[in-house]
Design brief:
By secondary structure, the chain is α+β, with helices and mostly antiparallel strands. The protein has 11 helices and 19 strands. It has 2 domains: about 350 residues, no CATH class; about 55 residues, Nucleic acid-binding proteins (OB fold (Dihydrolipoamide Acetyltransferase, E2P), Beta Barrel), CATH 2.40.50.
């Protein structure tokens, strides 16, 4: 829905969010200078992969391209050659770019622009896998069998040349190799066998509308091309995770599943959105019935993500199996080094393991430090995202004071009752007196304040 922002509340609010959460506005001069002079430290020893027809697939507006792929068949296996931007070749430990990256941890996205992990001259320029130019990359070779199980078959520093920058919104089957859809099908088959939850949900987003300072508040369902492309990263990350764990090293992405209380709340959320969740179906089973193109289903998938205790990072620990509940597997992040600090170090460890070399002590030391750094970065990014949505909701509801909405109580705690409006899908809190989770009620909007990013409702029935 379009947000009418004639008084500029969104622009002011987004500026305030940047100030409150100390979102960097640019890069120090020494970091920019280091990025401008950055060189490929492995240029003389790279394998030549420029004859391989790699392509990228991302949102149309993306220019920080981490991944390019080429697919082939070998007997019953699909072979994925996955080229990942080789950030480790142009950023040295302890240099100004590295120091700044450790302070940032991740790229932060806001509706009016992003705060990149690395200077744009690298992340959107010389390190990005843009089409029709030679670029340094780490090429992982991953085999995917008929059951969807993936295995790391090699890793090498190479020079690639992407043939095309494909976009989720416009890509057609003729743009892609025939193995692309089949690989996605195989990865989904393996997910089903593992009992993975598959909760890469469409998200509520605040999207610029026409460059006139207006925005749309929308839930953008994942396109089929986006879901299929995610299967490539999943196959690679699972294969790399298994290889690192087998060699007693690595930094893993771990997550516990939603607790019983969270599942109960999700049942109430489903009710608020008009979804029928059979009593005898588990969360994973119900989630698989959802259609990502349906806005109500998309809203519920986002609620699943919010109900999770959140994913964290953990270094290899003897005697412990790192586990990601949503993936139902051991899992790493290794495919987005332009946007996440940790990926660069996981890639370096994977290169060592795949080539029979010891993992340097410096990498092991980094794995011990990264969980705290990434947790802080992820928390800040999440707070910024939530603040932007709170702002959007306040601007959207401004002027509708006194209007009444249908809502459902999703849970009750010491802060009151959390409610979800049935339309629009806004989450808020009210006094919890005499309310129980699952209760349907009607509420009236008391106030909507864009300055504080708060909306306040009262129960009317």
């Amino acid at each position: 829905m379009r947000l009418i922002d004639s008084e500029g509340a969104l622009a002011r609010g987004l500026s305030d969010i940047r100030t409150q959460f100390q979102v960097p506005a640019g890069f120090p001069a020494e970091v920019v200078a280091a990025a401008q002079s950055a060189k490929d430290h492995y240029a003389a020893s790279r394998a030549d992969w420029t004859a391989t027809p790699f392509v990228t697939l991302d949102p149309a507006s993306s220019t920080d391209l981490d991944q390019a792929f080429a697919l082939a068949r070998d007997g019953n296996d699909i072979v994925l050659h996955y080229a990942i931007a080789d950030v480790g070749a142009v950023v040295a430990d302890g240099d100004p770019i590295d120091t700044e990256a450790w302070a940032r941890g991740t790229t932060i996205y806001l509706p009016d622009g992003k705060a990149s992990l690395y200077p744009p001259i690298l992340s959107e320029g010389s390190a990005s896998l843009l089409p029709d130019v030679d670029r340094p990359a780490v090429v992982f070779t991953v085999r995917v069998d008929e059951a969807g199980n993936s295995r790391l078959d090699g890793a090498v520093r190479g020079l690639i040349r992407s043939r095309a920058k494909l976009a989720y919104e416009t890509v057609t089957p003729s743009d892609l190799s025939p193995e692309f859809t089949e690989l996605s099908r195989r990865i989904a088959l393996a997910e089903d066998a593992r009992g993975a939850e598959r909760v890469d949900a469409p998200e509520q987003e605040l999207v610029p509308d026409g460059g006139d300072g207006q925005f749309d508040l929308v839930i953008l369902p994942q396109l089929e091309s986006e879901q299929q492309n995610a299967a490539l990263s999943l196959a690679a990350n699972l294969a790399i995770a298994d290889a690192l764990f087998a060699h007693h090293t690595g930094l893993f992405r771990v997550m516990a599943g939603p607790g019983d209380w969270a599942v109960r709340r999700l049942r109430h959320t489903a009710k608020a959105l008009g979804l029928i969740w059979p009593k005898d179906a588990t969360l994973a089973q119900f989630e698989r019935t959802l259609d990502g193109t349906n806005p109500s289903h998309a809203a519920f998938r986002s609620a699943i993500r919010r109900a999770s205790p959140g994913a964290t990072y953990a270094p290899f620990t003897p005697g412990a199996v790192p586990w990601h509940s949503a993936m139902a597997a051991t899992y790493v992040h290794a495919t987005a080094p332009l946007r996440r600090l940790a990926d660069r170090f996981v890639i370096e460890a994977a290169l060592a393991v795949a080539n029979g070399q010891p993992v340097p002590d410096t990498l092991t030391a980094s794995f011990a430090k990264l969980p705290e750094v990434m947790a802080d970065a992820d928390n800040r990014a999440a707070q910024v995202e939530r603040a932007a949505l709170d702002l959007a909701e306040a601007v959207m509801l401004k002027g509708r004071e006194g209007s009444r909405f249908d809502a459902v109580v999703t849970d009750v705690d010491e802060r009151g009752a959390r409610i979800q409006l049935c339309e629009p899908p806004v989450v808020a809190r009210i006094d919890a007196k005499d309310l129980l989770p699952g209760a349907a009620l009607k509420v009236e909007l008391v106030s909507a304040d864009a300055t504080t990013r708060q909306v306040r409702f009262r129960r009317v029935s």
